[in-house]
Structure formats: structure tokens, C-alpha cells
Batch of 2 targets.
Target 1
Amino acid sequence: MSARPHLLLVDDEAAIREPLGQYLQRAGFRVSEAPDAAEARRILAGGAIELVVLDVMMPGEDGLSLCRSIRENGDLPVILLTARTEETDRIVGLEMGADDYVLKPFSPRELVARIKTILRRAGGASPREVQAGGTLYRFNGWTLRADDWTLTGADGIAIPLSTADFRLLHAFATHPRQVLSRDQLLDLTRGREAHAFDRSIDNQISRLRRKLEDDARAPGLIKTVWGGGYMFAADVVRE
Amino acid sequence: MTMGGGGVMKRWRPRTLAGQTILVVAASLFVLQLIAFSLYYIGLRNQWVTVAAAPGVIRILEALDQRDQPVSWQRIRAARTLQLTAEAPAPRGHDAPQVATRAAELFRSAGLQPLDVRVAINQPEPKPRLSGLLTGKTNQKRTDRIDVQLSVKLQSNRWVTAYTRAAPVAQPIFQRVAVQTLFLFGIVLMPLVWFTRRLAAPLRALTSATTRVGTPEGTAPVPEIGPDDVRGLAASFNAMQDRIRSMLEEKDHMLGAIGHDLRTPLTALRVRVETVPDGPDRERMIATIDDMRKMLDDILSLARAGRDREPPQRVDLAALADAALDDLEDTGAPVDRADMPRTIVTVHPRAIRRALTNLVENAVKYGGHAQVSLRVEKDRAILAVADSGPGIPEDRISEMLNPFTRMEQSRSRDTGGTGLGLAIVRAITSAEGGRLHLANRPEGGLLVELSLPLAP
């Protein structure tokens, strides 16, 4: 993270883009602004951008599509600004490869806090795996549905998951067969309500193991790695 | 008895268009058959009267031989089957005035003016068994001969009596009724069954399509088949459905536009608030913007309730409640929960989760804490959320389910929220095939029960 990280702010609404740009500059960032995807691509081609703040709903090419193409071309972090509230849309943003999202109207302070978190993480680099695909993850006879946060077993009965459980399992499902440290898991599962996930990762893991009927003494799915953290020992098929 | 009879009638009365049409036609056909056979039977009897009278009359007339005038009594005496008496002979068998009248007519048409005609017939009165009656196999030997005693008074003290036989009228008439009726039913009813089914099929398709109008999965156009008027109904239904669909799409589009377009200036406002110096004013501005955001969210949720395009899933309601309550507890909401049995329902999990979250948030807001339980009664799962708050005055309970209704007269949003919470719960509940019941608990506080049909 450089002293004055360089952000790209993409929003078609000048009423938001201009004051937000000023606010971010006062908060210590260098800010380039783009009113649409085409301009954003031009600025990105110039290089030096460290993070993109991207509005989802824009005329012409929308934010999700731009986000996907940024992700395909590299590791540049993206935060989505979205007006939608439905969980489907939230998760779609993350599935498109965004690192985080904020819901309009958002607190600019919170946006700054998240930008800083992500830039810090990008410096230390959490492993991030982005595959193309849908919102279904299948492993060991289970199906995780990212659109409505349910886990479906072989009997076809959906088990809804709490936000914390879902985020943890989603983190595992998107990083199969990788050792994830507790810090990495915290990073991957931390949401806007930081206090919501004060429960220790270990507690969450044991709760999740119960739901997955994974024996805690001899876990087959979420394996404890000595000194390292946890590993999701399953092949995940994404549909 | 009448009630029981009514029940039986009701049970036997067909409910479908095809069934009722067939029943009415079958009943009419049967009545028609009865009338036709009565007429036929009367005609047959009429004919039989002539058949019974004619042989005797002919024999007497032959004996008299019209050309010999005056009456040649000698010849009558000579005829072996004729009897000449001074008085009317004792009747053998019972009186048959119809036959006598017919005989008198025959005599008159032959130019004779009988003074009196008496006929007695002696039918070896068969008491046909019921089975014989139905099958027509009555004892032929007993019934194929009827003795007819025909006496005519030609002059005072001159009675001529003829003894003849006649075949009985008795035919296997019931058998014929049965056979003909069955035959007729076959000819008329079979095409009718085919036709009414053909008529009812598009109506049934229309009915099932109508129940799906306005639901998120929508309904395919009804096939325009059948007779013209039914076809016309299907066509106008399809047109109506198109209009409804475009209205609903327009509504969704408009609400989406409102949500987006209002959020944009609200976001701009929220960003600019940061330039206001810290202080109570700034806090109030931020709180107001937040309220407006919540209201927008709620309006959009209400508009979207029941418009989920995904098919419902078989969900463990206990796990759903646990997940929702875990999330609420993570935000610090005081929730008591009972042990909940595994209960499978077919719903959209996100919608029910939203409904339960709203109910618990309400309970916490008004009652300080929420007690959540799940039980099964008959074929329904019942999620109950209870609080220890002030409850709701009985006369306002149903009103509370309407949008924008809050407990406080002041409409203060500090405790009242947007007033859409319960309306959203109700909209979700009815869209998921459930029922919502609000009641004050005897020990104080409000009890809200959301019941859902168990998955088959």
C-alpha cells in the first residue's frame, strides 16, 4: 500500500461521484473519476490504479460486467456500490469477483474503512480463487446455494445457514483443498457488521461441522491443519 | 331422514360439467323412454281389445250371414262354438267392458244393431315372478291363451254367445324397455361423454391457469381449443393475462426505478453530510437518511413479496429459524428459543427468514425480548413469536397488518419503524401459502403465529 493509494471511482451520477471523490481525497487517497465503463477502461489501461470503487447500475456497460473483466485481467481489488438489497444481488457481486460491496446510501467513513482493509489485505494477499460459474457449489453430496444461503443434503432438504456459517462455508467452497489460516478465514468472512463475527473461528468451525454432519474428532470435510489453520478436503463443483 | 337423504343426494350428485350434463341427459332420456313405452303399451292394449273382440264377432256374423233375413237362428244353433240362450249366460271369467264396447262397434259397423254386448275374459291369471317379468320368460303355456266369452243380445230373449281365444298382450315389455334404454344410452351418452370432456378440458385448463395468474412463475397461455364460445373465453383470458403480466412487470420496473432513483440523491446527501461539522445536527441528518433507506427497503420488499421466481424448496423450518435467530443474536437481539423439532415445509427460505426476522425485531422493539418456538399441529407447522410487551388493543389487531400502520398515534419512527414490517410478513405469509394469527397473550404481550402447510 503506497502512501497515497490511487483509487478509481466509477459512477455515472455526478451528484455522488464528485462529492465522494472529494471526500476520498481528503481521506488520503489519490482519486481518478470515470462516469462510465469506457472511461474507466481507458484510465485502467494507463495503470497505477490500486483499487476500483464501482457503481453497479450504470447506463451502457454495467458495473458487474466491468468488474468481471477487471477480475479476468488481474488482481485489482474492486468494491461495488449497489442500490440493491436482495441477498441475491449482494452475492452476485461477490461471485463476479468483487472484494466487497456497500449498499447505497452508505456512510463514506465506512467505505474508507473498507477500502483500507482491502488494500491491507491486498498487500498481504489472501489466496483468492475466482472461477467462472453460477451460485451452486456441490461437494460430497452437499449443495451450497449462494443465492439464498442454504445447504442441501442428499435428502433434498434445504438447511438455511446463518450469515456467519454461510460466509465461512462459502470461503471454504471457493478455496477447496487450500490451507486457510484463521486470519485468512476472518478476512474472507468479515462482513460489514464486524462485531457480528466476534465468535472465534474455531467455534464457527465446530458449528459448521455439526451442520455438515462432519465428526469433529475425525473430520473428513473441514480438516484441522496443525499450526496452519483449516483445509476444506473436498472437490467443489461450481454450477 | 331427510337430511340423510339430502346427504346421499349430494354425494351422488355429480360435480363436473360432464357429469351433470350426462346425468340430465340420461334422466331426460329415461323419462322419454317411459313415456314412449306407456304410449306403446296403451296402443298395444287397444289393439288387443280389437284382437280379443274380433274373432267372436266374426264368428257370430258368419253364422248370421247378413243376406239371410230374418235372423237365421237355426244356423246359429248349428254352429258348434256358438250358443243360443234366452238369458245372458253366466260370465266365465271377469267382465271386460272395453272389449264389449269394441265388439258393439264392430257389430254396428257390420250393420247390426246389438241390444246389449257382454264380454267376459278368463285369463289363467298368471302371477309372474319378478324374474320372469324382467327376463320376459313368463310361463308361456299359461299366458298364451285367454278365453273370451262374447255374448250379444240381438233381440229380447235372444243371446248369442261365442267362445274364442286370444293371445295375451303380455310381451316381455320390461325387457324391451331395458334393452332399448341401454341401447339408446349407448348411442346418445357415449358421444356426450366424449363431447362434454372435450368441452370441459379447456375449462379445466383455464381454471388451473387462473389460479396461477399473478404468481411469480406465471402461467403459459391456455390452449385455444373446443367450441367457439369456449375458445373465445380462452382467447380473451390469454389477452387478459398478457395485460396483467405487463402491468406487473411495469409495477416491478417502476418500483425498481423508484428504489434506484431515490437512493441516488439519498446517497449524494449521505456523502455531503460528511462535510457538516460533527454535532447533533449531523447525527440527526444521518439518522433521517437511514430511516429513508429503511423505508425504501421495506417498500421494495413489500412490492417483491411473493414475486420470487425461484421454485420453492423443501426446507427444514427449525434450521431456518435457528439461522435467522443466530443472525439476530449476533446483532445483540435478546431471543429465547425453545428446542425446535425438525419440520419440513416447502417455501422460499429467504422470504420466510425475512418474515421471522421482522416478527422477532417487532417483538424486541415492543416487548423487550422475543420467545420463539416451533410446533406441529395436524398438517401445519406453527412458528410462534411471543413478547411481553403491551400487546395490541383487540379492535386494532387486524388493522395492524395493513401497510403503514403503527402502534403509536405519533407515528414516531424511534419505536414505530416504517409500519411496513407486519405488512411484509403478511404478504410473504400468504404468498407462501401460510396463515398469520395475532393474539394478545393472557399473561400479557403479543403472540404472533405463522403457520405453514407441512411438505407432503
Target 2
Amino acid sequence: MRISLRKVEYECRQRGLNIGGLLREAAVSRNAFYSLARKDYVVPLSLVRIAERLGVSVSTLLEETDTPVGRMKALAAEAGRISRLYPEVDRDNVRHALLLLSEKPVERLRRALRRGRLFDIR
Amino acid sequence: MADSSIFGERETEFLRELVRQKVEFMVVGLSAAALQGAPVVTQDIDLWFRTLSDPGIERALKKVRGVYVPPTASTGPMFAGRGIELFDIVLRMDGLGGFDEEKKHAIKVPLGRLKVLVLSLERVIASKKAAGREKDKIMLKVLADALIAVRYHERSVSRRTAPRRRKPWHPTHPS
């Protein structure tokens, strides 16, 4: 599985970009991009072999990560696992804690302070 | 993303100066819990100092144009000045050992490029239990649940990145 320059150019055109502009905005060097584009396989060879053994394309074995919906589903699933293991916990408390763990500590602190100020809790 | 004006450059600068001056302190209370992922609310950031006579505190205050307000009959010691009124001074913690003992339970938490010592969630819970105030009792359930979530999450992250363990892990609920 390799990068299709044709597809990249097509997606660029759709957004009024050229490849140079795209690379600048994406903070990817031309060297890095064209060295990737020259490769026959941009996914690990072991994954290619697994896909070949299964007789499917590599893309069949991949899934999107880090989409908002994916993140919330993963978070809800983890909260579910924890509350099944610890029936005494409040699932909402667990879910909120997990949500905060995906943020930087300073952002967690800001949230706590902002809400504290809002509700005048001491 | 939370509003960055509520804990911005001024507050960070004070903490940075304290670290630079090698002042021994740690973040405690609900701010410590929040930094570790507990969904709590708080109005101030409690800083527990090993000793208030550390001259580094004065130097750090000078850098941020803050001042130390000595205790009176009705108030404890305080900091005054823009950006540092958010910090409360703590000299002892209910139900916990001394500063040096509790430092062993503290963890380093990054605040941008700065790393500060923060009392562990377990010890925050212990101090809230010992304090026994109504507002602390209300928070205990949230803190205990958060502790379970945080530790479970840490374990699952380390399981994903480390070799397999044979024994399953089952922490006990701290409530």
C-alpha cells in the first residue's frame, strides 16, 4: 500500500491547495513527503503480510483513531469496564475522570478553578 | 479547552520561580486532585511549604512583584499580588505526616515545561478524610471514584505498552 500522488493532488485541488502549500500547512518537509511517496509500502511490512495471509486489503484491518466519536466510544467503554469491575463507583465520576485524563494537567487545573469560581465553592 | 486566563503566565511564573529558587513545596488539596484527573472544583491552589522561612520564597515573590502577608489573629499567612492571590499557603495537612514524609508520596506533574511536586491522589483522600469537614465529605466519593479510574487507566496504558503480566490487577476501592 503506497501513497497515491494522484489522490493527494486531487484532495489538494478540492481545497484550493497545491502540494507545496499542503506540506507547509501540515508542517511536513518536502523531503519527508517525497521519501514516503517513493516507497512501495508506507505501512509496516508485517501488517502487509498479515493482510495477504487473510486475503484482505490492509485498509480492511485499519480503523480511524482519535476521531471525536471514536474517543467518546472508547472512553464510555473504559468507564463501563471500570464500573463493572467496581460496582460501587459512580459511572459519571469515572467517565469525567477519564475525560480529564485525556487533557494536559494544566487544563485539568484550569477547569477545576474556572468551575470553582463559577459556583463559588470553597 | 479551559480558559487559560485563570491559570496563566503569572501563576506559572511564580511556580517556576519557586522551583528555580529550590523552594521545597508541593501542590496539595483539590488542586492536586484536579491535576491528577479528579473531576473536582476548587477556588484556589494550596501550596504546602516545607518551611516559610526559606529565603527563596521571598526571592520568588520579588520576581513576580508579590508580597508575603504575615498571619494575624484571624487569618493565616497569605500571598498578595497579581497572579499569586490564587495560591493559598498550607503549613500542615490534616491526617498526614510531615512534609518530608509526605514528599515520598508526591509525584511530579508537568505544567507546561515546568514540573511541580503534587501530593498523590491517595494522600489527598487521606487528608480529606482526616479533615472531616462537610465540604470534604462531599468530595470524598468523587475523589475515591477518580482514584479508581486514574489507576485503572494507568494500568491499561502500561499494559498496552509493556510485556504481558500473569496476575490480573484488582485495586480496592478507597472509600
